[in-house]
Amino acid sequence: MPAHDPHHESVETGDHVVLIDGSAYIFRAYHALPPLTRSSDKLPVGAVAGFCNMLWKLVRAKDAQTGFEPKPTHLAVVFDKSEQTFRKDIYPLYKAQRPDLPEDLRPQFPLIREATRAFDLACVEQAGYEADDLIATYAELAKAKGARVTVISSDKDLMQLVDGLVRMYDPMKDKAIGAEEVFEKFGVAPDKVVDVQSLAGDSVDNVPGVPGIGVKTAAQLLAEYGDLDTLLARAGEIKQTKRRENLIEFADQARLSRQLVTLKRDVALDVPLDDIAVVEPEGRRLVAFLKAMEFTTLTRRVGEAYEIDIAAVEPDPGLKAGGGETALLAAGLDPDTRETAVPLEGAPSAAEGLTPQALSAARQAQATSTPVDRSRYETVTTLARLEEWIARATALGLVAVDTETTGLDPMQAELVGFSLATAPNEACYVPLAHKGGDEGLFSEGLLPGQIPPREALAALKPLLEDPSVLKIGQNLKYDWLVFKRVGIEVGPYDDTMLLSYVLDAGASPHGMDPLSIRWLGHTPIKYEEVCGKGKGQIRFDRAPLDKASEYAAEDADVTLRLWRVLKPRLASEGKATVYETLERPLVAVLARMEARGIMIDRQMLSRLSGEFAQGMGRLEAEISDMAGESFNPGSPKQLGDILFGKMAIPGGRKTPTGAWSTGADVLEELAEQGHELPRRILDWRQLQKLKSTYADALPTYVHPDTGRVHTSFALAATTTGRLSSSEPNLQNIPVRSEEGRKIRKAFVAAPGHKLISADYSQIELRLLAEIADTPSLRQAFQDGLDIHAMTASEMFGVPIEGMPGEVRRRAKAINFGIIYGISAFGLANQLSIPREEAGAYIKRYFERFPGIRAYMDETRAFAREHGYVETLFGRRCHYPDISAKNPSIRAFNERAAINARLQGSAADIIRRAMARMDGALEKAGLEARMLLQVHDELIFEVPDDEVDATIPVVREVMEIAPFPAVALKVPLKVDARAASNWDEAH
DNA sequence: GCAAGGACGTA
DNA sequence: GTACGTCCTTGCA
């Protein structure tokens, strides 16, 4: 039926068939995109604009493009024809509850059809069938010819189509939907989606399903019984009474639901598949349409692409404002409620009709071309002006945000002001609590010309929480917490620091200043220039307002510019999934963990501090006795002089700087030779460490209001993807020594609660078995063997039963050595054996496990060739010095690269678990809250009576964390325990 | 007052 | 042999 170009070619292998769910697109676009109206007559055209931008991107994609690669060869926009479908015949209530169309959406339906024709693309609809059935049929035909299919929609009803050749694409989120996403939604693979829907039903479409069964239960049942028919046949076996009865009673309703949700894949198509081939649009006709719509940016782009003088083209007379039927469509709309037309700039998905590669190259080139002009920044002093900025940001759907505060700790610092940026050089600072000038009786007065913070924040809150406006920050976790403390939960968001981290971890730093210098060629104002440094440093709220304002506005401006450069690289370098699944979700997750904090027993620590001090005093007396003089045992320099100078003990080593080495390993050796002093020093150092770093320091971190300790987790601090923790570091709380565990005991659950510690057992060794594909190691894990003993047995031929501890210890050291990128030198050091012997061990190990040598060789070669390695989940860790001429630097980088694949993959897995954990706990109706992460361990605080219910949920989330992105052959094992303090829970 | 080096706590 | 952060001393400004 479409007036379509007859020069089609038939579909064949390698072709790419794109099917757009037109009706669904309009609804999504209407709700997700900022409202946009044609300026001359206020005709609402937001969805049409988004649609045209998308089509342009599709038909002009020159190269591979995420989600649309390869370039579409065939494309159809598919619509629902009418209400009456075969499903209504089966079940009259089907889709009987659809609300009426919003007034300003209705006129966009015919315009979308017009747009499709203007692009010379097929517009398909067929009586008696829903768009979904037509899409399913086209997909089926295309697959049969070996073509790839992309369905542009995020409708869950279409997810049953996903398979190796068919994927979906969510045009609003700019995100591919594959088997993984389907699994995340339904808990089953795509081929079981229909079964889940048949059981769970759908209130929106009025699909009945089985009462009492939701998606989660359905997925669980299907995992157990395989498929719907088997489940219904064996329903009698189900333990839960109500569930069993319902499944038996409503079995027929489930089968009816299956008929409703199963898409018809064999519709007799009015428009054959071959007829939807993509052809080059007729430029002038397209321009005429776009001009009539008044989409100036896209009109210009299309004009340039086809070398058409757009001024010479008349707008389509049937569609232009006041000129045709569309004017009538707009009638009845209240012009005052319509937004003025704003071009969709900034967002790469909507703006530029380019491939990701071309876009990121263009953005990079542009980045330096508009110099930062601080004179264009504005200091906002009135609510009215602020509201104008907010309106502008809302219309754009995009804004960079930065907070200025009184300190560096987001849990304590007070908000002083915030800045916004909407385009390069288009930025403002909104001071809220700057002080100075007049002194009040007890405190300094606020400077005049500041909006009352409550009013400003009340105006800002809807913007920062608006689901259709993307907030962009640099290290956004900080700002997220600051805003959270004033009652604003920021979202959705992007973080430029994390973008940089995903793209360049190990290659360059991710702080704003270095990023600005590198990508924008611009050096921002230094904080010291505003507030001074050292002793003379003043708080931001006391800084001169003009300087403060420039500084703050520039931060937002720079952040926005960085986003424009970095965000497109995500797609062009294939790292969008890493960012979306491993980075972005962690911002809010970690912010919440930090805000919760953990309780410590200060009395216990204070008592310990006294004990440690006593012990140190005793040791100091003995030490000076033995040394024959009093000296500072905390000074390695003085100690070295005593031991190797005055006492002339032989066998001393030197540090790289030429000083005597007095490290624990050296002192340990001396102690074993019978020297008493080194033993005392070691004991003293242990107490000194425990006292100063833990017993004395931790209480100083207790928050005055919450009474708890709030660490700060860094998301972008390591090369491998691990988190880090600081101020205080709660990832290095002692556990190995008896004395140290007393510190750990002081980490306690709140009254009426327990701490649960859940940790992955041997995760890096398991990943070694997986990545290096070593069947014997894998088998050992599957059989639940003692992996170190098994290694020893393989290497030395000693039976596991009755194995001497020393033999196992050596194997364990070798296993760890492998993870660390083993060297004979390091292993020899660790085991205190000659280097030759260590070398022999390694040789034997590689003979027994040849796959691991291959893994290490491959990793070295890959890193050498590419300058980076990748984890199982695609995270990149860069090692720019991997090809250094200096052999020891090179070897160091090789070991680090070998380690990074394992450490990084483990880090990815726990990140995935953490990203899902809050939701899983909530879904299970549990009060448990995640407090800490220690690389392979998660710590929760749980009400006493929920401990037993929480542990299985936590364990499940952690153990299946790699799935479905990666299906490990090696099982993951999680140990979890609860107690009232961390030591006993661990 | 600050940076570097050494030492040591964790995974 | 990997990955971190913190405390203390030292040496220089």
TrEMBL record:
Domain Exonuclease, chain residue ranges per copy: 397-572
Domain (DNA-directed DNA polymerase family A palm) ranges: 740-946
Keyword flag GTP-binding: no
GO molecular function: 3'-5' exonuclease activity; 5'-3' exonuclease activity; DNA binding; DNA-directed DNA polymerase activity
Reaction(s) catalysed (UniProt annotation): DNA(n) + a 2'-deoxyribonucleoside 5'-triphosphate = DNA(n+1) + diphosphate
Domain spans labelled 5'-3' exonuclease: 15-279
Domain 3'-5' exonuclease, chain residue ranges per copy: 377-571
Alphabetical GO biological process terms: DNA-templated DNA replication; double-strand break repair
Gene3D superfamilies found in the cross-reference section: 3.30.70.370, 5' to 3' exonuclease, C-terminal subdomain, 5'-nuclease, Ribonuclease H-like superfamily/Ribonuclease H, Taq DNA Polymerase, Chain T, domain 4
Source organism, top-level taxon: Bacteria
Keywords in alphabetical order: DNA damage, DNA repair, DNA replication, DNA-binding, DNA-directed DNA polymerase, Exonuclease, Hydrolase, Nuclease, Nucleotidyltransferase, Transferase
EC nos: 2.7.7.7
Subunit description: Single-chain monomer with multiple functions.
Biological role stated in the UniProt entry: In addition to polymerase activity, this DNA polymerase exhibits 3'-5' and 5'-3' exonuclease activity.
Protein family according to the UniProt entry: Belongs to the DNA polymerase type-A family.
Protein name according to UniProt: DNA polymerase I
Species assigned in the record: Ancylobacter dichloromethanicus
